[in-house]
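If it is no trouble, might I ask you for a protein's amino acid sequence along with its backbone structure tokens?
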Amino acid sequence: MASSTRGTWIGFLITTFAIVGLTGLFATFAAPLPLERAMAREQALDDAQAAIHGPNAAQAIEALRRRLDESADALLPVGGDMDARIAHERTAMRARLQIEASAISQRLIWLVSVVTVMGAVFGVAVLRFSKT
């Protein structure tokens, strides 16, 4: 009977540490978000660059506002050297999203670390208070 109880506790510890693995798995979904946003913004800036060389550039850029997000504020109102403004905004957008990627990375490291420690402490506490 003692070996059966021991097997139960071993299974419990495996489950405790599996939670850490699941946390890491879920974290992998958050990690690529800044890259995906940067790629979408790059495409929107490419579309804006094409739009400024067409008819009614202001209206075309305004139509892209939702896709441009905060980059739209740097491009509107239309005027001056728009190619230079778009190039400058492209560089600024990349810097902003790099900072965002670093922040997400740090939060994910903390998340996995804290869950790992919590799982280990919980598992040890339960095993310590068990009678087997």
Notes: The CA atoms of residues 17 and 119 lie 6 Å apart. The chain has a mean pLDDT of 85.
